[in-house]
Give the backbone structure.
Amino acid sequence: SLVLFNSEKQSFEYVFQWRNSAVKKNTLFNQWKNPHDLPWFFSQINSFSIIETTSIDSLPPEATNERAWLSRSGFNSIMYVPLVSQGKAVGFLGFECLKEAKQRLSEQLKKILRIAAVIFVNAMNRKKTEQALTQSQRKYRTIFENTGTAMIIVENDSLISIANCRFCQFTGYQRSEIEGLMRLEEFIFPDDLALLADTAQNCLTEANELRILDKHKKVKHVIVHTALIPEATQRILSFIDITERVQAEQRLRDLNFSKSEFVSIASHEMRTPLTGIIGLTQTLLSKDIDLSEEEKIRFLQIIESEGNRLSLLLSELLDLTKIETGTTEFNPVKIDVLQMINETTSVFPLPPTIELKIDAPMDHVVSVKADRDRIKQVLMNLMENAVRYSKETGKITISVREQDHAVSIAVSDTGPGIRKEDLSKVFNKFFRSKTAHKIASKGTGLGLTIAKNIVEAHGGKIWVQSREGQGSTFIFTLPQD
């Protein structure tokens, strides 16, 4: 029998048993729940002595419990060889026989049995070590796989040997595409390779912020930590995704810049009419300047015009601020698009020398769900823009089309058009192209910006198509769903 001591349960445990088929399974040691009930037996085993007797009658007087124990089992001769591990008896090899032995074993055979005991102990210890190692590997692999952080293990030559599930999700690659095939440098944004080298040199001391490229070459911002795996040439790298944070910080910087730029431009735009109003008012109030009635009337008309311009500018600034900050309330209702266009054009002050054409389906009602007043405002702004830049005998066309569950409304003019380099700027606050300056246009520079914000708030898009000298077409879409 191969029997081990269970120190926690204070009992014996049969690991294996060899027996003649005619002999019943030996449960001898199971009768004893407490090994200390066999004091002589344990004193011998714990002193690493081989217990051998050819007959239970030859046991020493102090082995009273052991003699009764063996007598009940029916055994007459026994031999027990201690199993020793790390200076401690952990069990024994047992040999029991129903008959009396004719003679004791030779010392040579006992040495062989001790060697066998050592082999058993080494095998058991190796098995325990392997089990502990397997359990440890399973535990750390589970942690490695299920952590919310993207992690990889990199060999000394930067080849990625293991990538966890989160890293695969983060980069868009399959595990089979990464492990043993890709190197760490392939994921790093080229400009950040030097930072990666610094990270590798400063293992466990600091983290670096890097940019990595996913499978679709999309840039993602990460904080990377690197640590050496003890007694190995491998490194473990963890990546914390901070892309949203970086983007939010950039948006905040852009917003702060836009606010500063907005205040600067708005101040300039308001200063221009105010300067004219103040200058003309001072002239009218001056006793040293003799003005005719016609001059006074002309000055007052200019003051009124500049005052109206300033009032419009302030109104549009307030309107734009509300839209951009999300404090404007939109009241979407079902709108008959053609009816809405007719309502807008009927009150629009169109110069008599400019022709207006409406091109829309007449065989059915084209409708969208939107804020009627706000969409009218968009159309009005586009028409004002078209009139402002049209020739004296120009033409404005308003077209309506349905496509891909959306309605598009286009306002075209026959004006001077827009330079190619200015097309991307026309919706910027206060932007005025060189063409606008040439024709001395006096718009606020906010109409198109307001139109863009209103359209996008409805889930639509707005853009311009134009070639210098060939007029412009402003198109916006509104979803029908």
